[in-house]
């Protein structure tokens, strides 16, 4: 077992590793075998305040630091992730049940975002804008917001913490990170350790491992953070947005999804099957962009279904430490029970199980369901597990209607032999991201990532990260003399 779980089972506040003062411990379990990995005394409201105060104190000097000097921290952090890749992989497998494949996917993206942060330190640019007033110069400065609060989820905890933490720091902000209770090390203190070892000044990044049962809304209500970056469910996201709006804070919300992969009548079926199986079952389906729904033109549905089911049956479920495992455990027993209940509800509503996986502890085998009634709520909600709904359609008009018939709008994909037909289809879908002849699960450092409807507010990556974690200030200079009416 990685030494991270003994070394990093603490709070990280103002450059110091220390226990929390909360009223109970979070026990960090391996979701596959139930092994206790760590015990962490949670942070109380007092520690939340100390973390934010530390970030605020350290941020002023950090923002004034030459961006070329700031950049060196991210270059070192990237090197450290590369050097420690085996240990981090081991931690991902142990703490969240990620397979070797999934850990590699997560680390590849995390390194890409760290590379982008190296450049992001130099990206903020000012402008001089013309004025209708003679002698006036309008200067536009892009400045850090100050302190950013980051709340990260359990499914891709290392990546999704790094994705907000690194850009926010690179742009001159301080950060307080609250990882998910199920992934406090990989999503929290491991990130702090990498930046500490990379030479980030103490106090700039703080990690508080805690629970809302202890702190309530203190993390988002605290007066110091100007932006809250939250990744998680739309239910919690709605609450975060409401609290932030009432306090005039900015929120960046990356929420759930109910994506569809659509197979049109002229698609390459074998390729579409590969894309659909990956898009649904990667990391046990615990991905916001996962293809909950697989829509297939009725004229090719029988052939596609046969190939899809055959491929799903080859997916090995079991120990995530085994390199041959594709489906590891889901994060906890509540998730396992919820996924099983979803399958049973679909069957009770009249669906047919083409593959009916069993559930043993947190191991949930893949299921493939067809014939889910068109009016079923299951087709409109996020299913965070290895369950695929196959839905036939008659023509593009019906496909567009079905894809859009959900409160979510995060990702999606369409397969067709005609790329421009695919692009025209994609334009009709109410979603933040859509892919032609590919899977639904993608994230890239330069391309705006985010959703429509209940899938979130705002975007991250590239230029949109600048918008998320900086603010604009107008300073005018009158070189002549203004005229005043009195």
Quick overview of this protein structure:
This protein is 39% helix and 21% strand. The chain has 486 residues and is α/β, with parallel strands linked by helices. The strands form seven sheets. Strands 14-17-18-13-12-20-21 form a seven-stranded mixed β-sheet, sandwiched between helices. Strands 9-8-7-10-11-23 form a six-stranded mixed β-sheet, sandwiched between helices. A three-stranded antiparallel β-sheet has the order 5-6-24.
Description:
The longest helix has 21 residues, at 100-120. The chain has helices at residues 4-7, 45-64, 67-83, 85-96, 100-120, 157-170, 185-197, 212-215, 218-221, 234-246, 269-281, 301-312, 333-348, 395-404, 419-427, 463-469; strands spanning 11-13, 16-18, 25-29, 36-41, 127-129, 136-144, 147-151, 174-178, 205-207, 227-231, 250-254, 259-263, 291-297, 352-355, 359-360, 363-364, 367-370, 387-393, 408-409, 413-415, 435-436, 452-453, 456-457, 470-478. The protein has 486 residues and is of the alpha/beta class. Helix 5 (100-120) packs parallel to helix 6.
């Amino acid at each position: 077992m990685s030494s991270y779980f003994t070394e990093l089972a603490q709070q990280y506040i103002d450059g110091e590793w220390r226990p929390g003062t909360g009223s109970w411990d979070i026990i960090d379990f391996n979701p596959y075998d139930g092994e206790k990995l760590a015990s962490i005394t949670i942070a109380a409201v007092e520690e939340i305040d100390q973390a934010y105060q530390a970030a605020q104190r350290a941020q002023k000097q950090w923002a004034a630091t030459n961006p070329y000097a700031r950049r060196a921290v991210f270059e070192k952090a990237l090197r450290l992730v590369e050097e420690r890749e085996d240990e981090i992989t081991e931690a991902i497998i142990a703490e969240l049940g990620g397979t070797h494949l999934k850990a590699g996917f997560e680390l590849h993206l995390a390194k890409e975002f760290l590379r982008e942060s190296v450049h992001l330190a130099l990206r903020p640019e000012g402008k001089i804008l013309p004025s209708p007033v003679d002698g006036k110069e309008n200067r536009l400065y892009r400045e850090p917001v100050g302190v950013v609060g980051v709340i990260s989820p359990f499914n891709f905890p290392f990546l999704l913490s790094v994705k907000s933490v690194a850009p926010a720091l690179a742009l001159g902000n301080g950060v307080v990170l609250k990882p998910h209770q199920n992934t406090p090390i990989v999503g929290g203190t491991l990130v702090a350790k990498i930046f500490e070892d990379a030479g980030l000044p103490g106090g700039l990044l703080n990690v508080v491992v805690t629970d809302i049962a202890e702190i309530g809304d203190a993390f988002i209500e605290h007066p110091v953070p100007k932006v809250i970056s939250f990744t998680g469910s739309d239910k919690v996201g709605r609450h975060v947005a409401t609290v932030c709006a009432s306090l005039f804070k900015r929120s960046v919300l990356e929420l759930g999804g109910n994506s569809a992969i659509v197979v049109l009548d002229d698609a390459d079926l074998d390729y579409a099957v590969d894309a659909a199986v990956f898009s649904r079952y990667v990391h046990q389906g615990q991905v916001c962009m996962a293809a909950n729904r697989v829509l297939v033109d009725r004229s090719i549905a029988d052939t596609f279904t046969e190939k899809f089911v055959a491929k799903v049956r080859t997916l090995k479920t079991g120990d995530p430490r085994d390199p041959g495992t594709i489906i590891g455990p889901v994060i906890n027993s509540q998730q396992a029970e919820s996924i099983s209940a979803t399958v049973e509800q679909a069957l009770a509503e009249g669906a047919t199980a083409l593959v009916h996986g069993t559930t043993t502890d947190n191991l949930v085998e893949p299921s493939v369901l067809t014939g889910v009634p068109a009016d079923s709520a299951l087709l409109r909600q996020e299913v965070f597990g290895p369950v695929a709904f196959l839905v036939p359609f008659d023509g593009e008009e019906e496909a567009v209607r079905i894809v859009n018939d959900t409160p979510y709008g995060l990702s999606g994909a369409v397969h067709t032999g005609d790329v421009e037909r695919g692009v025209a289809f994609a334009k009709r879908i109410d979603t933040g991201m859509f892919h032609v002849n590919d899977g639904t699960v993608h994230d890239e450092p330069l391309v705006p990532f985010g959703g429509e409807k209940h899938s979130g507010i705002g975007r991250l990556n590239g230029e949109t990260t600048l918008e998320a974690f900086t603010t604009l200030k107008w300073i005018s200079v009158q070189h002549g003399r203004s005229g005043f009416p009195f």
